[in-house]
Amino acid sequence: ELGMFTLDPGYVNTAACRSAITYLDGEQGVLMHRGYPIEQLAEHSSYLEVCYLLLNGELPTQQEMETFKDNLNRRSLVHEHLDRFYTGYRYDAHPMSIMVGVTGALSSYYHEAMDIQDPEDRLLTAHRVIAKMPILAAHCYKYAMGHPFVHPRYELTYVENLLNMIFAVPHRPYQPSPVAIRALDQLLILHADHEQNASTSTVRLAGSAEANPFACISAGIATLWGRAHGGANEAVIHMLNEIGDPKNIDQYIAKAKDKDDPFRLMGFGHRVYKNYDPRAKIIRKACHDLLNEMDTVNQPMFETAMRLEEIALQDEYFIERKLYPNVDFYSGIILQALGIPMSMFTVLFAVGRSAGWISQWLEMMEDADFRIGRPRQLYTGSQQRDYVPIDKRG
Ligand code: SDX
User: Fold this and answer.
1) What is the pLDDT, as a whole number, of residue 5?
2) Cα separation of 202 and 327, whole Å?
3) Residue pLDDT, tens place only, 61-101
4) Ligand 1 centre from 298 Cα, in Å?
5) CA-to-CA distance for 360 and 263, rounded, in angstroms?
6) What is annotated as the active site (predicted)?
7) What's the first-to-final CA gap in the chain, in angstroms?
8) Is the distance from the beta carbon of residue 325 to the nearest atom of ligand 1 less than 6 Å?
9) Do 254 and 306 meet the contact criterion of CB atoms below 8 Å apart?
């Protein structure tokens, strides 16, 4: 018995770690954070409240939430010298390449002064990561646009600040719509944590060596960038743009099924979900509602996406392999409807996931039994043999 779930011994032996933060059942399509179903959190909670839940294990009281917000606000400044880091990147650098660098560079501002053996320093680090990620992310967009950096304002909420830091410019007023704020808040909730995915496992492994936590988060960002992982949301839009008219769908389905063709249907399949990704269901409805409310031009792309989903879900190849749409299939359409450029999609995934990364880092560091991670291998190389001098070879 591990907590409220009985895991068969085989699973326990192969489990990478113990965690009480997220429960995921790939066969049933179940996702819960600290016991709360993702469907309820997406409908009733806020990203900041989910951050508190992931970090502390319980939903906050009104007072605890106010204190948490205040703590994050007080950590929401980034040293001016870090702004200079951006100018070292090529003018057209992919924002994820910048995020890897500047997040890693934060470790230089919090190294000697931080004692990861001290519980208070660890929690302070967690607050710093959650508070600073939106700023680093927004600065990436501003650097790409050649616009002045915008800094967070105390009176704005977390998501209002994120949108304001991305889109506000000195020469005209900017006020994000409540629809956009809610859509982005929900998207961050759905990306907050997801058990031991590749990027979270990277953060845990780096953290188990007692590396600087900001450097660990940077390693997580590097991992998330891969198109098989968080980079898929950007790849889905490229794919939908390439498909264009729904009449072209069949030829792309055929490509995806062709063993000799490296093309994969982006936004489909999952290492764990062999049922519908519960987040995809939520995002699909949010996407539909948003496009209707914003009456945006993405409607044709959304229609193509829904038609592609409908055809794939009826195709034997996908049915046999239990390939369903995942969280990335619709998230890109929402982000595009919000005016977020494609190059920033995975950056926003990283902002959302930073709460999960740092919560799992904190959980590991607080586990008295934790030791350095050391995955093993199945050796497939040569049996033992003796050295042969070069003049005796060949
Ligand atoms: C995320 O781990 C997480 O939790 C990740 C994530 C999170 O929140 O952190 O959920 C976020 O990364 C979601 C996944 C985003 N990636 C994509 O959408 C990229 C496209 N998907 C594929 O690359 C693939 O499905 C993976 C990488 C997601 C999973 O790869 P697996 O584990 O190899 O897939 P599988 O074992 O289920 O594959 C079974 C079969 C194979 O064919 P056969 O060898 O049986 O003939 O299905 C095929 C695969 O080749 N297959 C696909 C496919 N995905 C799997 N064929 C066509 N298109 C696809 N998308």
Assistant:
1) 43
2) 20
3) 999 999 999 999 999 999 999 999 999 999 999 999 999 99
4) 26
5) 33
6) 270, 328
7) 58
8) no
9) no
* In contact, 283 and 190? CB cutoff 8 Å: yes
Provide the 3-class DSSP secondary structure of residue 33: strand
ipTM greater than cut 0.90: yes
CB of 268 within 8 A of CB of 324?
yes
Q: List Cα–Cα distances, 100 to 85, 95, 145, 150, in angstroms.
A: 12, 9, 19, 20
Q: Is 267 in the pocket of ligand 1 (CB under 6 A)?
A: yes
In the set 127, 193, 270, 277, the catalytic residue is 270
- What tokens were used for 389? 């001098």
Helix (H) or strand (E) holding 23: strand 22-25
Residue 291 in contact with residue 341, Cβ under 8 Å?
no
Query: Does the beta carbon of 327 lie inside 6 Å of ligand 1?
Result: yes
Cβ–ligand 1 distance for 194 under 6 Å, the answer: yes
Strand partners, 268: 325
Q: Candidates 243, 326, 354, 360: which one to mutate for ligand 1, based on the most atoms within 8 Å of Cβ?
A: 326
Write down how long the chain is. Answer: 394
Task: Specify whether 194 is catalytic.
Answer: no
pTM above 0.90, yes or no: yes
